[in-house]
Every structure is written in structure tokens, then in C-alpha cells.
Design goal:
Elements: E1 3-4, E2 10-15, E3 22-27, E4 31-36, E5 42-48, E6 54-61, E7 66-72, E8 77-84, E9 87-94, E10 106-110, E11 127-132, E12 138-143, E13 150-154, E14 157-169, E15 172-185, E16 192-196, E17 199-203, E18 207-219, E19 228-231, H1 237-241, E20 247-249, E21 254-256, E22 259-262, E23 273-277, E24 284-297, E25 302-303, E26 306-307, E27 314-324, E28 327-330, E29 337-346, E30 350-356, E31 360-367, E32 372-377, E33 381-386, E34 389-394, H2 397-405, E35 424-430, E36 434-440, E37 443-449, H3 452-459, E38 468-470, E39 485-492, H4 495-506, H5 514-533, H6 543-563, H7 572-579, H8 583-590, H9 602-611, H10 621-630, H11 635-639, H12 649-662, H13 666-679, H14 682-689, H15 694-703, E40 709-712, E41 715-718, H16 720-728, H17 730-742, H18 748-759, H19 768-780, H20 784-804, H21 816-822, H22 831-838, H23 848-859, H24 865-872, H25 879-892, H26 896-906, H27 911-918, H28 926-942, H29 947-963, H30 966-972, H31 979-995
Parallel strand pairs: 1-35, 2-38, 10-11
Antiparallel strand pairs: 2-39, 3-4, 4-5, 5-6, 7-8, 8-9, 9-11, 12-13, 13-14, 14-15, 15-23, 16-17, 17-18, 18-24, 19-23, 20-21, 22-24, 25-26, 27-28, 27-29, 29-30, 30-31, 32-33, 33-34, 34-35, 36-37, 37-39, 40-41
Length: about 1000
Amino acid sequence: MVQLYNLHPFGSQRVVPCKQEPAQFCCGHDVLFVASAAASCGVEVFAVRREGRCEPLGSFATLGPVLRMAYSRAGDYLVTIEEKSKATFLRAYVNWRCMSAGSSRVCVRMVGHKMAESYTETLKEQMSIVEMALSDPPLCISCCPVNGDLLVGCKNKLVMFCLKYLVINQNLTVLDFERSLIFHIDNFIPAEVAFCARHIAITTELDVLILKLDYFLISKWNCLNTLIHFHCLGIKDEDLAAHSLQLELDEFVVCQKPVELLGEESKLCKIPITLESTELSTEDKKHFQVQYLLFRHFTPDQSPFGFCEETKLHSVQFLPVYQTGRCTCVRNREQERTTESLLLFSLPHVGYLYSVGKLVELISTYQYSERSEQAVLTPQFLHVITSESLQCYTVRCSAAAARDEDPYIDTTVKACPPVTLDVCTLRMQLFIGPRAICHYKNHIILLTKADTEDITERRKPSRRMLSRKADSNKSRTNSESEPGWNLYIINTVSTIQLYREMVDYSRTYENVRTESCIHLLSEAHLLVRAAIMDPSFFKSDDKEELLRAFRESCAFLGDCYSRFDTKDYHLALPYYRMSGLSVAEVLERLASESDEIQTYERGLIFYLTHSLNEELNEELNKVLQIFYLADPMQLPDIICSPCMKNVCPLTAVKYLCKVEDIMPSVVLTLTKAFMALKMGDLTMYECEMNSHKETMLACGFIGQPKLLGEYREGIVIPTEFAVHLKAMQPGLLVAATVALHENSKIELEEADMFFKMLCNNGEDMVPQLLVDFWEALLVACSREEVLQELLLRVTYQYVWRISKKQLPETKPLKTTEDLINSCDHFGSIFPWVTFIMSMESLLDKDCPEDISKLQSILCGQSIDITAALPILDPLAEAGHVGLTVRVLCSTRLGKYEESIDQLLRQCPAAAVLYAQHELKDDSRAVWWNKLLPELCERARLTRSDCPVLISSLQETLSVVAMELELWDFLSLLPEDGTAAFFLPHLLHCSQRKQLM
């Protein structure tokens, strides 16, 4: 769909003072070449100045009438197809600028001809005409804007000439061409060709074929001949039969369907190509191959304008997209790297614009209002001429360039109108008999030829015609002396002027058709973006004004997406950010003139929601009213945002109370308590906090984590609320932080930093409140990897305090008993551990809570004892505590005999208690294999000096007598033992046997 607006992109116009009727013309870098239609056979050259003024630079003769002509900025040469004696010739005019300096010397030579020595001194001051011989007459030509190479279309072939720079001496470099490649295409007559950065477009009357020329280097030793022939494509008949290019055969008529083939599919176009390399043999040479990108076939047009027998393609052209440093731009510069190109071709009533890069994609389709004669694509517009008008359409060059630079441009930071935006007709300017058109910077060169009956009509004034400024002061007195043709240079208005007109025009649609308003502002934005991307922008006098217009256009688009109910409302955020406006300035733009209640659309809410998380120093009380009306449940989140730190607490409480009356929640209560703290109203604070149970309050923080901490550069900074809770309700603070962690609102490392900053103990010190958090998280957490990390952390902290005899700075929130009763990770302390600790004097019992918690963890089954061993090393020599830790670790590792040895050495009274608790099932044999022999041996050595050993031995014998057979039991008894000591146990063992 084409949007039609009546804007004024065309400014003043001037007449080019041609002496003869133009037949062909084209623009150079800063000049206009005009080939005459008269028998004089020459080309006039005009310098194009500012505001379209033309100054004659000179002229030069051609061999015959010019049929086609093209200019290449790379190499600054003009190439023509000329006719003489019914034969056509291909010629390149090099160093033509010397003609304007008054030199009349001309050198004519064949392509590749070696320069004669006599020319070396005077070659600078003469124009060179390079004739390029071809085996078939040239039909069409195209110069590559990137490197200046030349592509010539002939019947059944294309010929490519590479531009070369020949160094004659240190002061003289001349241009030459080398015929490097021939494309042989059977049964194919090109009507037009376009060539850009190894991309080739060929059109016939109804076909378009887009190719990409790839090459790689091969050694000359792999080349048997300097001519290389190979086929790029072999098409099987069955492949074609299966495709949509089938012919529908009727009884009398055969009609071919229109078809579009993209990418790999385009190989089925039934146009095989054979390449012939004609470069001279060198050490390393290029090996070419062709990649098919697009094939499109059209049929005679049957459009709303009627059946058209003369449907033909025209105006095929590439517009390269270049990337220069940090700025991507669309321009014609041979020294910059091209990343992709835009391709245009037209039918009489429809134009097609494709992007040609990694992928080939149709960007825009242009529906012309009447039959077109020719079209020309520029970075900002598409200009089309019809039989009686010059039409101007918008294009998407700047949008394509922006997305080529950054495929993910539509984010929360930056945005750009889409490439597929509906095209827009800016103007349809009436002219009499437009025949041909070309473009140079902000100038349109237009050739008109009026019929005899149109001349009189043209003399009548018309408001719709542009003012005509002629360089010549000669006045024409009658229609007979006035020619029926004119060559105009039409100046397009400045970007800023047209931008302002588009913005003013868009206001007429604000309250009627919001889509049209957004569309026009998007066009204005793309217009300014294209101007900023132009390489001349940095040296432009309008640089600052264009930047202001760019920011202003972003602000206008932000207004649209925030005020209108559109599906792309989220774009308000990136456009406002690109505008450079602060939140307060945005609100001021959108503020109504009265204080009446108004509705706020999703775009504004989306923008504010994302923008208020930034650190701002602005008065934003208006935001509270907006969210109260638009999304009241977001008020707590807004109030806790960093940029709302200066908000009036009384105003915030007023809106919170209004919302709570309708939809009460714990989050609202907590937010009101936060505001009460800011006001210093402790009575209100206590009232709010006492309105819910502590468990509910802890869960309430899940809904609004920013009540406790603010994120700044990846760090959670405690709020005033968190500081107050630390002093008054540390249990609630810990429970709330655990709830946040379990609901993925805060990570473990973030929580560590949060508590360290809150307690201000230094980064190396671990505050007790953080240990309380770890212990509470052990109770709630179920993830194994987090559990092990927490167990090792609390173990390390217990060990550090015990070894340093450092008491916690605050009272722990949970005792050992609390932890044992609340989770399985803290086990009940074993009786033998309790017995060993009971033997320690009261004076030696430092950090009793930490000791019992450490022993409880080791008595549990959760901790990875292997990972904990390095942490427990500092307690190796720590008396009874160290003994219990070592024995617990040995036991967890299954080293029961080692544990018994340690106990017998340091606390033999606990050996039997240990055995009774630990030596069960598979480890029960340790009783008689290890413990009984050890006790007997130690009792023998100490005689009767150790009653503890004797008592332990008796208890051991009682257990062993119950477990072993009589003969096995007798074999364990020492031979030098006292019979009276062992007799009761033997009797018990034998009686147990009889009973069984």
C-alpha cells in the first residue's frame, strides 16, 4: 500500500544551457555530461554548482551518435556506446577534465595498448580515448561504483573489464582496462545491466537475474591454459518439470506464469552460464564462479490500468550500502567497504526494491499511479517519471543501513522504523513530456520533450509548475523559436525544510488517523537519519541542526508510541532514550493543560517502568498520579525505584492508602511502613508492621525486593528499611532475605555482600547476621550444590571462631537445638561426643554454641566430609574439641579402627560408648578384632592402675560373649589372664549357647 501525501520535496529549477538537443546524459561526481542528438556528435560537459547552477566546462567530439553512456567516479571516466556507419563502438573517455583547461590534445588507443615513450611527458595534459573491441555489438553498460570495473552486455554474453592503474613514472599514473571475464549466456539478450561489488543484475524485457561473482586464487601451475572454460550450472529437465516454471498448455495458447526464485532455488531459472577467463597468466590468478541469488519472470501486465502489451522492465540499478567506521551510510564511494546493496527494477506500473547481501529480500513494492518511463533510486527518495509528471517516493535505504550495522537495533536502547514500512508518495509534480531522468546529490536532472501542440500549452502559467530559472537572459518571443525540449536541474529542498513540513503535516492526523501520524513521523525520522549517515555530514554546515532534528524526531515518535494505543507501544522507550530527554521533560511534554483525570496508554507506562530504575535526581511526583490511574498495583515498585528517592512520602502514602482501600496487600503495607520510616513516624511504622504476621511480612518482600536493597552497578545496597530491620527485627530481615533467595530474587553472593555492607564489618569479616542467614537458608534450601556451599561456609566460620576463641558480635538467632529440630543437615550430637565434652573443664569451654553446631553438622549426614577436611585442620590440636572432630571425620570415612586408637590414647573411657554407637552391622567385628585385643594389651601393660580400662574391658567382654560362639570366644581370651576375671563372661557365653 502506498500512502499519498502532498508535500514539497522539489525546490527551484534551472535550465541547462545545452546548445543541441540532448539524446543521452549522465551525472559525474560534480559534472553533467550531455550527448547531443544532432549530427554534430559531441558531448557537452557542465559543472554543477550549488543551487543547481550550471557552468559549461567544455565539450569533446564523439565517433558518432551516443546510444548509451555511463560515468564512473572510481577512475573519473566516461564510457559510451556510439554508432557509426551502422556499427557500434565501446569507448572510454579518460582524463577528460583537461578539456576544460583549454587543452585540445587527444590520444586514441586500444585497450591494453602499451603507452609509447613519447607520450610520457605530455600524457597529463591530454584526454585519452580507450577503445574496447568486442566480437559482438555492445547493447548496455554499467560501471561498478565500488571499484570502477566495467560490465558490458552483448547478445548472449556479458564482458567484464577490470579498471587498472598503470604507473608510467613517479609523477604520472594513467588508467587502463583489462578484459578479464566473459559470461556466456545462451539465448539471452540483455536489455539492461547493473554492476556493484561483484553483484550483477541483468534484465531482459520480462526477466530479472541477479548473480554474485565469487573468486579464489589458484596457482598458475594448476592452470593448463590461460583461457579457463567451465560451466557454472547444469540443469536437469526433471528438476525444471517439478518447478513452478512449467508451461500451461492450452489448446491454442501457451502462457508462462510469473515466478520468483530466491537463493538456491534460483538455479532452476533455465539460464545456464559459462564463464571464460581472459586475464593474462600470472603467478597467482583469480578463479571465478557464479552464485545465483534471484530470478524473477514477469508476464504482460494485466493491471487496474488495463491490459498492457508493451510491458517491459526498465531502470535496473544498484545502490551500495557502505559501512564507514562507526557510522553506516548509503553512498557512492569506491574506497569504502560495501556490506550489501539495494536493487531497484521497475515495470510500467510497479517498482521493486530488494536488499542484496547475505540474503536477497524484497523490501518495498511501489505502485505507480500511472505508466512509468524511468526511475532513479537515491539514498533518500525514489524519483519516477511518467508521461506527464515527476513523482517522488520515500525509500528505506537508511533503515536498511541501520539494520545492516546492527541487526538487533530494535531494543530498549535504540530503534529505527522498519524497512517494510509502507512507501509514501511525497509529490507528483506535473511536467510536459518527461523523457529521461538521472540524479546527482540533491539535484534531479530531467529531460522533457514536448510535442508541437504542447508548446503553446506550456506557455500558459500554471500554479502546479515549479518556478523556472534560466541561466540565459535570452527571452523567446514566439512559439516558433522556442524548442520542444528542455533539460532541467531540479533542486530538492533541504532535509531540514522537508523534515519540518512532514512534522507539521503529521499534526493534522494526530486525533484522526494515528497510523498516518506515526507513518509520517517515521518518514521524517528516516529522512534525517539518511542525512546524518551521509559522509559529508561531518563537514556540513547543518550538522548541529540535523542532530537536533534527529533527537526531535525521536521525541515525536516517542510521544506517538506513548500517547496512542498501538501494538508497538514498547518503542516509546528506545525513541525517548535516543531523544536525550529526561523523564521529567518527557512528562512535561505529555502533561495535559488541565488537572482533569486522563487515561495513560501502555507506551508511557512501559517507558516509565523501565526508565525509573535509573539513578535520577528529579522531582517526579507526577509519576505517582500516572501509575495510580493507569496501573495502581505497580505503585510500590515505582516508589521504591532509585529515581524516586526524592518523592514526597506524604504524597506516596496518600496514593498507597487509596490503592489499599481497593486492593489490600502485604506489599502495600510494607511500602507504607517504608514511607513512615522516611517521615520518621515510628508510630505509623509499628502500626503497619503489626498488621500482619512476621511470616506474611517476610513473604511480602518477595513482591518488592527493592524495599530492602537497591541495585547499583551489580551490587545490592541496603535501604533504610533494611537498616532499621537489622536493629529492631533481625529475624524478619533474615527470613525475608531467605525468601528472596528461594524465589530467585537475590543470588547467594549478592546476599553475602548485602549483609556485609549492612553490618559494616569489612569485607574480610563475616557478621553473625550473615551466619544467621546461612543457617536459615540451610533449613529452607533444597538444591544440593547450594547446600554443600552453605555447609562448608558455616563450618569454616565455626572453625575460625573456635580456633580464634572469637565470640559472635551479636546473639545468634538460632541455637544448636533449634537447628537440629528444624532440619536434617544438623544431626543430634552422639552420646560419646557429649561424654568427651563433659570431661572438659568449664574454664576451657570457649564458643560453646559454635562447638556444638560444628559437632552437630559432623554428626549429620549432609556435609561432604572430604571437602570439609581442609577446613577442619586448625582444630587438629584443640583438646577434646579436636578429638571429637578427628574421630567424627574418621568415622564418616569408615576408619573405625583409627578412631578407636585415637580414643584409647586420649579418652579411653569413651571407647566403649563409641563402639556401642558406631560398631554395628558390617563394622561389628571390630569389637573382637580390634577393641578387645587392644583393651587386653593396655590392661596388661598398666596392670590394675587404670580402672577405666578394666571397666571398658568388662563391658567389651559382655558384648563379645553375646555375639561369638564359645570356642571363638575362648580363642580371643589371653593365655595369661586371670580365670576369675573371665569366668563370668565364659559362663554367660556357654549358658547362652545351651538356651539356643
